[in-house]
Design brief:
10 helices; Nucleotidyltransferase, domain 5; 2 domains; globular; five-stranded mixed beta sheet; binds zinc ion; 10 strands; single chain; alpha/beta; 37% helix; binds adenosine-5'-diphosphate
Length: 315
């Protein structure tokens, strides 16, 4: 090796040591956008939050946050997890856009473009729920696993699937909240609250607004002994049974506001055990179900940490 090469290699090595990689993460939500600068191992160095206002204003603030930092130390990559629906098709001219959303002013907005224009680094884009699963898989309740389902039961029901370590996108992205479920026998009269499927789909029967419409009271005010919860657990057990049979995940993570009701977890596990009726060899005992259907471990941090993981995937 020539001495020039040796010097140049030594220089590269010292640069690599003195300049560890820096990753950007964005969690775009209906009420706020969270931005973070992270190390390669997921430590958050700096964070900022901007309210979700007009797209120009909010995305301008997000781009400004990263541009200011990139001026002194360039980002290796940026990961963006965004509320949807979003276009994830890389061949599409509207990749990185929010498509038809009820959020005023945001339909047809490109979230990725202002960030690409502001930053000289790869920008990766995915749904908020896919990022939450990426976060949980990397650092939370799915750590060490490669086949995981993550479902959030809140204002809507959104789900994400990891198969063999990869997030499943399909033609668009899974919409498992709208899977069709059989009616519980004590819940035949309710019209359901899905705009598309009424009471035929899971979201129309079991999301937070469905609970509120069905019982006249939001879920957070229904006591644990209320009959709502037995019915809710049955619907969620149907979801888990279907996921188990179709995808064979190693774990199912259930999050979102409605799952703040801790008592739902044992109920869902018991109902799921009954529905599966001993069919799956790895799911037999109560202890098997205890570690199979679990809450998220990262809480509110799953989305931003998943966006970090998305950025790291750019490497
Ligand atoms: P979002 O889905 O809008 O991001 P959440 O996951 O907090 O937000 O979901 C909000 C929904 O969850 C509302 O319909 C609310 O009534 C319901 N919810 C929030 N907290 C609870 C709770 N502790 N118990 C039951 N339902 C809850
Ligand atoms: Zn639906």
């Amino acid at each position: 090796m020539s001495s020039a090469n040796r010097t140049s290699n030594a220089l590269k090595t010292s640069m690599a040591v003195s300049e560890p990689k820096l990753f950007g993460a964005v969690e775009g939500g209906g009420t706020k956008f969270v931005c973070a600068l992270c190390t390669e191992d997921g430590s958050v160095l700096e964070e900022a939050t901007f309210p979700t206002e007009a797209p120009d204003r909010t995305l301008g603030a997000v781009a400004g946050f990263f541009r200011d930092h990139a001026a002194t130390r360039p980002l290796t990559a940026l990961g963006v997890g965004c509320f949807g629906p979003v276009d994830l098709n890389k061949e599409s001219p509207t990749w990185g856009h929010i498509t038809a959303t009820p959020k005023p002013g945001w339909s047809g907005t490109s979230v990725a473009r202002p960030l690409i224009d502001a930053l000289d680094c790869p920008v990766l884009f995915d749904t908020d729920v896919n990022c939450a699963l990426l976060g949980e898989a990397a650092l939370g309740a799915g750590k060490g696993l490669r086949d995981i389902a993550y479902v959030t039961i809140g204002t809507g029901i959104g789900g994400s699937v990891m198969a063999g370590g990869h997030i499943v996108h399909g033609a668009m992205h899974p919409e498992l909240g709208h899977m069709l479920v059989p009616r519980h026998t004590e819940d035949m009269a309710f019209d359901g609250s899905c705009r598309f499927h009424g009471g035929a789909c899971l979201e129309g029967l079991a999301a937070g607004p469905a609970l509120a419409a069905r019982w006249g009271t939001p879920g957070q005010l229904l006591p644990p002994e209320h009959p709502a919860w037995g019915i809710e657990a049955d619907y969620l057990a149907t979801l888990c049974a279907t996921l188990s049979l179709i995808l064979s995940p190693e774990r199912i993570i259930l999050g979102g506001g409605v799952m703040q009701q801790d008592h739902l977890f044992p109920r869902v596990r018991t109902a799921l055990k009954e529905k599966l009726a001993g069919y799956l060899p790895h799911l037999q005992t109560a202890a098997d179900f205890e570690t199979y259907v679990v809450p998220p471990a990262l809480g509110q941090r799953a989305g931003i940490l998943g966006a970090w993981k998305l950025a790291v995937h750019a490497l």
